[in-house]
Amino acid sequence: AAKNTGLEWEKLNYDIHTLRYTRREVRSRWKKILLQLGYQCEVDALLSVNKQSRYSRDQEHFSRAIELLKQLLEHTCLFPPGTGHQSRYLYVMDRLVSLDSAEDFVRLAREKYPKKDGLQNIFLS
C-alpha cells in the first residue's frame, strides 16, 4: 500500500506541475499579444483577475466578450487541449471589449497561434 501511495503522490505532483506550467504558458501567450497591441504599462493589470473582478455592466459588451472568447477557443491554440474554458480570460476579454481592442486581440491570436488541424503539439510556439 505504501508503494501505491507513493505512486499516487508522484502522479498528483506531476498533474499539479503540468497544470501550473499550462497556466503560465496560457498567460504568457496572452501577455505577448497584449504587448503587441501596445499595452506595455497595463498588461499585468489587464491579466489580473481576483475575487473583486467584475464583468462590464454593459450586456452587449459582455455578450461580445463571450463570442470572441469562443472564437479564440475554436480557431487558436491559446488554450492547450484539456484545459477547458478558462473563465478568468472572459474577464480579460470583457476588459478588451471595453477598450475597443478585443477584435485586434483575436486577429493577432489567430495569426500567432493558429489551431493546427490534427496536430496537438502546441508547446512548440
TrEMBL record:
Transmembrane region(s): none
GO cellular component, one term: melanosome
Protein name: Melanoregulin
Pfam family name, one: MREG
A biological-process GO annotation: melanosome transport
InterPro entries referenced in this protein's UniProt entry, alphabetically: Melanoregulin
